[in-house]
Amino acid sequence: MTTLTQRGTTRPATGLMKAVVVHGPGDLRIDERDRPVPGPGEVLLALEWGGICGSDIAYWKKGASGTASLTHPLVLGHEVAGRIAALGDAVTGLREGQAVTVHPAQLVGDGVLPERIAGRTNLHPYVRYFGSAAFEPHTDGGFSEYRTVPAPQIRPLPDGVDTQQGALAEPLAVALHAVGRVPELRGRTVLVNGCGPIGSLVVAAARYRGAGRVVAADLASSSLAVARAMGADETRDLSGGDGLPEEVDVVFEASGAPAALGPVLRATARGGTLVQVGNLPGTAAPAVLGDLVTREITWIGSYRFVDEIDDALRALADGLDVTPLITHRFPLDRAEEALAVAADPDSGSSKVMLRLTGEA
């Protein structure tokens, strides 16, 4: 019997694999599925690490994420990395055994955009994304032992960047895209409100892009500790009576809480910039917005990323350390426990990782 060896783990080539599949609200299973075979232009990945995101938690708890709802089972996960197990016909420039991550977005249709947003493929109205129920059939994610991926979505990992770090290139790309929405950060004072995984990565991205001083604010002391480890110069514990600083040049709102908008706008300097990174509700919610007008604040949205996953890999190769973000690791068979820890505000978790093959 043939075997596949990856990072010291040998698995019989039985033709089956395990996958983390959500079947409905609260119904998560470790299913056995046929191991896929790469077609022309595709790559078969033996996946090693996956990071749990808020959308994974939403599908597990509610059967929906944003406006996308489950109509059939879905493999979760869009923050993944592993090694190439096989190449389909006509794939060049890649090799078996190579450590890679994945750009999880694939445009549907011709990809043509209006001139005003030319090149901003994250704003294309039809995008298939790993682990998303937005389309029929749904687009399975990468929380599985193997997955086929179109070769153009493969991103080789630089030397010195392992697959655990590589699985965090996707959320780091989200943070770098947010930071890139401000033309120049060098030397400027930055506030990051909300220090979950994305907020803490925004701290790191702002520091990497040359921000002069970075202040981080959150309600949880554990999140603030991660933000400090990721490069924050100062932290504000909003649960302990600390307020937000005043007259901050550039503010990144990463909590997605409507109640935070009033204080965050007040913290933004007159004529300053507020970048909305945290997803706001798709339904009506009260918020105090008066300062947007009277302080002439520029309020900018930030959604996913374009090709900043390439920038993220360069940053990791340059030594940007994302490991302080990782607080928990679980094997694939304990995926539901991992999701519960990631969803529990009292667990002290930041980024929870799944070891998709081998031991966590």
TrEMBL record:
Keywords: Metal-binding, Oxidoreductase, Zinc. SUPFAM superfamilies: GroES-like (SSF50129), NAD(P)-binding Rossmann-fold domains (SSF51735). It comes from the Bacteria. This is L-idonate 5-dehydrogenase. Residues 24-354 form the Enoyl reductase (ER) domain. Its cofactor is Zn(2+). Gene3D superfamilies: Medium-chain alcohol dehydrogenases, catalytic domain (3.90.180.10), NAD(P)-binding Rossmann-like Domain (3.40.50.720). CDD domains: idonate-5-DH (cd08232). Coiled coil: none annotated. Belongs to the zinc-containing alcohol dehydrogenase family. InterPro entries: ADH-like_C, ADH-like_N, ADH_Zn_CS, ER, GroES-like_sf, NAD(P)-bd_dom_sf.
